[in-house]
Amino acid sequence: MTDWTKGAQMVAEGSGRELLAAAGVLFPDERGRVLVVRLPYDRKHPVAVPGGGWDPEDGSPRRTALREIEEELGFTPRLGPLACLDWTLDDHRPPIAAHLYWADPLTPEQAAAFTPDRAEVGGWAWLTPEQASRALPPRLSRRVTACLRAPRSAGPLELEDGLPVGPAGDVPAPGPVPVYTGAAGLSELSAWWPSAAGGPAPDGPPLLERDAYIASRPRIRAKARTVFTDRAGRVLLVRQRPWDLPGGEVPYWTLPGGGIEADRELPRAAARREVREELGWSCEPGRLLALDWLPGRAADPTAVRNTALLVYLFDGGTVDEEQLASIVLPPEELVEWRLCEPAEARALLTPASWSRTAAALAARNRPGGPAELVGGYPAG
């Protein structure tokens, strides 16, 4: 069985819950411009930021970003914080969770020392934010422009289809929609941008048909959970009806929430649905408090899952006694709920789940975007 037919089989078995993952890097220079590259294999949208698709051996999207830059441009960058996570839906391909990272500014000498893989990078240029907004394809343009316009202290930004989402006070105002120009005129700006478009490099690999390529890419899964507390600061946990996992472990206690139906809903919609299904409440998710990446077995042999998992943790706010009294649990899924002091929650949850919860609670008390976690612990 070929790689892409295996990928197609995985998609079928995923029942709409699987999505692609990717990571890119925003390289600023000393003049505030951003680095873009030419994709020799993409005639329709040849301008992009450096980066690429996640592989199962990557322990995190941060590692994906590092690997892609090493492969594409021939050097190891110094990554800064996560700039944004953008979840996009598309009728013609699976959804994508796209991560963008800031990197340290590059000097002209560092850029001149690039050793690009010509099958992956056919040229590069430094663009002002305005130039980049026009040259990049519309969805990527929205994603990059949102990161460039927002103060660093606001990140990581939560995006859906390239647009900031969340509570009104946390969402940067969108700018005007630029006219898409693609690669037009870039050869006049950069000595490293070819003047003529073309196909893949002569010694590059043959191109896969688009559908076959998408089918060949590995998938992840995602969950949306919500952190509710009472006035005393106790955390609301729910206990799942027991079910077997590899190794015989049963995750009894967890935060309310569950799997995102990746092919039909966005993370906030999933959080809203899960709270309604599990607690009987109709409420809007608050701030995104944390993003936790759980590697699969290819990156971590001790992992309980074959597939990597991305967990969104939203703020549910403070609940009162009347709201708690209205909880209606689905008996086929949950058997009880409990308000827990931090010490009790730590004892009931797995170490990674407690660390994830603690990071989300801490994020409530500071400005800015969500905490970036890997396996429940700060990424880095």
From TrEMBL:
- Superkingdom of this protein's organism: Bacteria
Report which residue ranges the record marks as coiled coil: none
Against InterPro entries, the record matches this protein to: NUDIX_hydrolase-like_dom_sf (IPR015797), NUDIX_hydrolase_CS (IPR020084), NUDIX_hydrolase_dom (IPR000086)
The cofactor named in the record is:
Mg(2+)
Q: Which UniProt keywords apply?
A: Hydrolase, Magnesium
Domain Nudix hydrolase positions: 16-150, 218-362
- Classification via PROSITE patterns: NUDIX, NUDIX_BOX
Name the chain's protein.
NUDIX domain-containing protein
